Amino acid sequence: MLYLIIWILVVVASVFFFKKAAGSLSLLKPNMISIIFYYSFLISSYIGTLFIAVGKDDYYMINHLKHEEYRWIGFYVISFVMVIFPMVMLMVSKLAGFDAEKEYKSYLKKRIELPFQEKNEFFLIFAGLAFISLAAIAYTFLKTPKIPILEILIGHGDLSPGELRVEAQRNFGGNYIVRNMLAIALTPLLSFIAYVYSVKTNQIKWKLLFLSLFAGSILINIYDLAKSPIFFYLIMFLLLRLYVGRMKFSWKRLFIWGTAGAIVLVSMYIVIQGVTDLESYLSINSGPIGRLIFAQIAPTFLHLDIFGKSVPFLNGRSLPASLVEMFGMDQVRSARLVMSIVFPEKIEEGTAGVLNTLFIAEAYANFGYLGILAGTIFVAVLVQVLYITFIRLPKNPIFLSLFIYFTVNIPRTLVGGFTDFLFNPIWIFVTCLFVGILLFIRIRIDLANLWLKKRSRGEIRR
Fold it and tell me: I need a labelling partner for 173 at 20 to 30 A (CA). Which of 220, 230, 376, 459 fits?
């Protein structure tokens, strides 16, 4: 009963602070902070935490806990983060003079600017990037020995869908930068930008470019049979339509989309994992429900249970490889290490990868409870600074698409690891690429205008 009372009080406090930091927690007007609250914290983390604390989970990962006291220790640690994280974000807003509710509403109504829409040079650069990203998708498929989605469709091979997925990830024979940055990360972003231009200009060239990039994005998100990427891409696309003003969310639409998503998810479980038992879908500790409320948070309890007792703290070895190697050490991701300790047989079989979980777990694995405190403050500050920055930037196709990209990918990363917030090559790449293009074209235009002015004044001879 005590845990339930604390849980309710924490949720109430968390809702209050998150709403103040976001400007709105309405499901009809989703934003980066509200998605973080609902997806990363409430659904993926805190609901399951209560069941684990009271011992009512019966979840296969938690059954591997060696020290039962980490059920309640984990509960209090995650409760702490649930409150401190949004409190820090609210403090950042106060320091920046950011009125979340007012500025968020203003952003939704703000007119979209179309920089360089008359400049053919911009379209050619963008079309070139689109060609590169689509070529990267083709390259990814060519360098993947067995394409899981194709193997399922044609019904060949002796490998299970889960094994096919691991094979596709582990036995990829190409360049990972080409696959991860140019195919997986760049293509969806380009499709968003092309969509905004196609809607606002109504030009055939932008529409054709969008359709090709949309098809490419769908393919690269489903080829390896991963269930979540395609859902997140479609969520980003719906958010984009909302922010562009082409769609309004309603409870009816949310119900229809939720029902359709559930049907598709169940179908994927049947096809990919062969789960046909109805009880598995209705049980809280298996199937889609168990995946939602336990799969992302259970490894946090395992991290608390393992590091500091069974395994020494990593002391920074999970930090970005480029930094760790400077000190003559090998990078060790805690999520992979925990998987190898808890499920060594799956590692040997080649059917397991990492146990991704709430970001504080990796922070704890490296620096203990101090890592949880420092990591929570650091990530909260970073997230709120990004949110404020995007809200205050001009609402053009590039900045809007980056905003949508981070709106969905930051919540995903919060339940993926801590060090990705310290150095994330993909985030840096896409941001520098598109901001660089804007700056390059702007500088070219300014120089051309300056040259014309000087020429008109006779300062430059023909």
Answer: 230
d(CA 298, CA 361): 10
Nearest to 99 by CA among 14, 24, 16, 15: 24
Give the span between the Cα atoms of 57 and 293, in whole angstroms.
Answer: 10
For the record, the structure tokens of 78 come out as 């995650």
pTM for the complete prediction?
Answer: 0.90
Residue 413 placed within a domain? no
Residue 111 is classified by DSSP as: P
Burial of 34 (0-12, 13-18, 19+ CB in 10 A): buried
Neighbours of 396 (CB within 10 A): 18
- Nearest CA-CA partner of 7 in 72, 62, 88: 72
- Alpha helices per DSSP H over 250-358: 251-273, 278-282, 287-293, 298-306, 321-324, 334-342, 344-349
Q: Return phi, psi of residue 171, to 5°.
A: -105, 20
| pLDDT tens figures, 285-321 | 777 788 889 989 999 999 999 998 889 999 888 887 7
Write out the DSSP string of 435-450: HHHHHHHHHHHHHHHH
Is residue 433 situated within a structural domain?
Answer: yes
